[in-house]
Structure of Phage prohead protease, HK97 family:
Amino acid sequence: MSLDRYATSVKTYGPPAAIFDDSHANPPDLWADATHVTRAATTAPTTWDPDTMTVEVIAATQAPVMRKDARGVAYAETLDMATLDLSAVTDLPVYDSHRGASARDVVGIVQSLRVDGDKLLATLRLSAAEDAAPIVERVAEGTLTGVSIGYAVAAWRETHENGQRVRRPASWTLREISLTPDPADRAARVRSETAPSATARLGGNPSNRAATGGTMPNTQTVTPPEDAERTRRSEIRTLVRSAGLGAEIADDLIDQEATVDAAKAAIFDHMQTRSTPVIRTTAPQNDDPAVITRRQADAVATRMAGGECPEVSRQYLGDSMLDLARSALSRAGVSHRGMSADETFQRAAHGTSDFPLVVSNAMNKVALDTYKAAESPLKSLCRQRTLSNFKESTSIRLGEMGRLEEIDEHGEITHTSRAENGETMRLKTYARGLTVSRQLLIDDDLGLLGDMTAAFGEAAAQTEADILVDLLTSNPSLSDGTAVFHSTRGNLADTGADPSVTTLDLARKAMRGFKGLDGKTLINSKPKYLLVGPELETAAESLLASIYAASVDDVNPFTGKLTLLVEPRITDDRWFIFADPARLPALQFGYLSAAQGVQIQRTEAWDTLGMKYRAFLDFGAGWLDWRGAYFNEGAA
């Protein structure tokens, strides 16, 4: 427990406790049960030094203060300056009335502390900040003389003196000092219940008067301990019954020796956590066609390609294609009673049911998973774009600003222009069709359907890879009329050779020397990827492997510097170096904004007894800039 006593307030740092003030005429006794409280004393305003913004104060004395414990039993609390630990006290704050929630509440710092007999003396250095000026002015003119301390007690020592129970801290430390309003007369003050904030809880029924002059004459009537305990138990049980809680909660609070205030807080917490009735509503999967369609599609996709089925879709895993078709007809309001399997599939496939949607969604899922698994590593070298139409699109690249120019005292800022360059790209559509025959549906052969659908996804990935590899190996001309890799650009090796420390060093030096569109500004193109075909895969892995070097000459400077990419469509010994596309993209690819990646759609097929599906891809690719790539044709 820590105490704050003087003219104004007691501050609590722990659980809510009674907060008191010494500024009225009939002071009842102080009592508290917190872990940390505060204590007040008086200032000596004549020590104010306006030059250094310092003032000396009596921070605390050993004057006793009346308290009550959790059972309501009174005792006198007396600070002992001999047990105060000042060894670890540094940079203690000075607060405005113990309000330490904001930086504005700090009005100074404790410059020094010393114990003088039964008093704790302190020198406070106040803040020169504008928001602290009103408090500083009151200290300077002597109208604000109240000082309180906040402290923590590690252990207590209890004795009985002259029939009075006395508690002294066996070890305590100082936490803060506050400036608070000064009472009119210490000897004729009323200690009434006041709190530093509106949220502080009041408790107890203080009736004792604190004496002045440091002595504690026992002239007041003290409530017998057994009466206080009886009152505490009765109030707790009344509060629990009023809240509609069980008697066992009251028993627990009484056994824990909780005060009435603590019991109120605990009862409120019980009321907040009390369970509320569960209101059951109709689950979406019971009547929402969109939810049913999605979950049935997930179940069909799991049966087609394997993998983990979502928990909410497991109920449909055992349904055959015929079961799904009948379910779709029922949701569409069509009776399937007496229909053969052939008739059921015909009505479900060509009517208004959502059975075709279940199949197409499942196929889309399987195709997309396969498409992602078969993607070309070249896509990691490109910048992705999204285009709104099939018109030719131009990517504009602005040149560099160059350097800032020095100007003299009266010089004018000169303006410059930035060069620009643009490369084009156009989307094209690639497509294939697939017919799901009535025989496949009746036989419920989802394994075959899954293989056919997976082939859609792989075909789309193969198409993209072929386009990107052709764009890379064909070495087309850019908008300036020069091929991407050309000796005049410096990104084409003079002599073909396999990747090695020497050839990679030449490539890196060349890329580091690339200049911007202005032909002057170095853009510092840093190599990040090494792209090879299967012919050089093993050699490249060995080159980039992290191997312990026995000597300096054996150190591989490119270990961990480059990421290896292998494209199986590169069939010779050529290899490429690419910069990070996030920093300097060389290639680009794009999709139509309304259809990114492979798409599967259902088409009406009145000329067949099955269902027709088509897979299509809107894709385009092109070069952006030659400065992000380097080419070596290899040793072969």
User: Anything to note?
Assistant: The first helix runs from residue 133 to 141. Residues 1-35, 183-221, 276-285 have pLDDT under 50 and may be disordered. Residues 228-265 form one domain.
